[in-house]
Amino acid sequence: MTCEEAVDFVSALCDGERIPREVAEHIGQCGDCRARLRDYAILGAELRRTARLHSPETVPAIEGLLSTAEKVVMQRAKEASRFTGWWRKGGEVMKIPRFVFAILILVIIGLSSGLE
Amino acid sequence: MNDDHELAERVCRGETRAFEAFYRENAAHLQGFLVQLLGTPQAAEDVMQETFLQFRRRMNGFHPDGSLRAYLFGIARKQAAEWWRQRGPNLQPSSEDTERPKAEAASLVEDAFANLNADQRSLLWLREVEGQSYAQLAEILGIPVGTVRSRLSAARQELRNIWRSDRVVKKENA
């Protein structure tokens, strides 16, 4: 086994890929191949560090990608979730049992229709 | 059914929220990758948006056994190639004509990386930064896994050679 034969496997090993045993034994015993493996690891780590430094701070809002019809659907969904949120919150803070609240509503409707 | 397949079906059904979630998760990563291919943040942003539009329109082209991210990055690569093609044969991606700011390079590695050709930059970026597997890289690039292995090895050798020679020059100038 020569370093030239092992070179592609050094890269594969760096990526955690499985390599033949005889190649692994060569890399373990060869200073040049071990240095290459170490350098690949350093270069990879440095690239990831660079990527974090240059990562775009903002990306365009998705609304720009959606059609007008989709925007209308989204707006309706937001409004619907606002209403259901209000209804849920009202239910959570209610101090009287719900069936009492329902009876009260019916009484109010009955009284108001009786007044007419 | 895997998560990607389920998400693909939801996007196919026109579920805006599924598409939105996928966009939020991947847009910045895709833009970072496209900067490597195109050289400028503005071009990367334009092509990124076009890529997501194409992705949504072409959901039926997604293979259920594949990865949705790999499918997205594969479309991005083709869109980037189309972007270069529209600029004519004299303007093809290379280390010289992309506008990576060499003067602003924060490190020798960044400088060496900027000197690789566009194919090598994109391959190493997808592997080292985006963590794509060999199978996913094969899907994105449309090449066999064995070719992914040899191309990655060649790109790393090239990067290491430039990096080491730059270090020698820097030491001599110091």
Largest sheet of chain B: none
The string of secondary-structure elements of chain A, in order, is: HHHHH
The total strand number of chain A stands at 0
Shape of chain B: elongated
Supply the helix-strand structural class of chain B: mainly alpha
Average pLDDT of chain A works out at: 82
The percentage of residues in β strands of chain A lies in under 5%
Mean pLDDT of chain B: 84
N-to-C span of chain A:
102 Å
Oligomer: heterodimer
The residue ranges of chain A in which pLDDT falls below 50 over 5 or more consecutive positions are none
**Helix count, DSSP H or I runs of 4 or more residues of chain B:** 8
- Cα distance spanning the termini of chain B: 59 Å
The biggest beta sheet of chain A is recorded as: none
Q: Taking Cα atoms only, what radius of gyration of chain A do you get, to the nearest Å? A: 34 Å
Largest interface: A-B, 33 and 39 residues
How would you sum up this structure, described in words?
The complex is a heterodimer of chains A (116) and B (174). Chain A is an all-alpha fold and 116 residues long. Chain A contains 5 helices and no strands. Chain A has helices at 3-14, 21-29, 31-54, 68-93, 98-115. In chain A, helix 2 crosses helix 3 (31-54). Chain B has 174 residues and is mainly α. The chains are: A mainly alpha (116), B mainly alpha (174). Chain A binds chain B through residues 7-8, 10-12, 14-15, 17, 36, 39-40, 42-44, 46-48, 50-51, 53-56, 59-60, 62, 64-66, 70, 73-74, 77, and chain B through 16, 19-20, 23-24, 27-28, 31-32, 35, 41, 44-45, 48-49, 52-53, 56, 106-107, 109-110, 113, 124-125, 127-129, 134, 149-150, 152-153, 156-157, 159-160, 163-164.
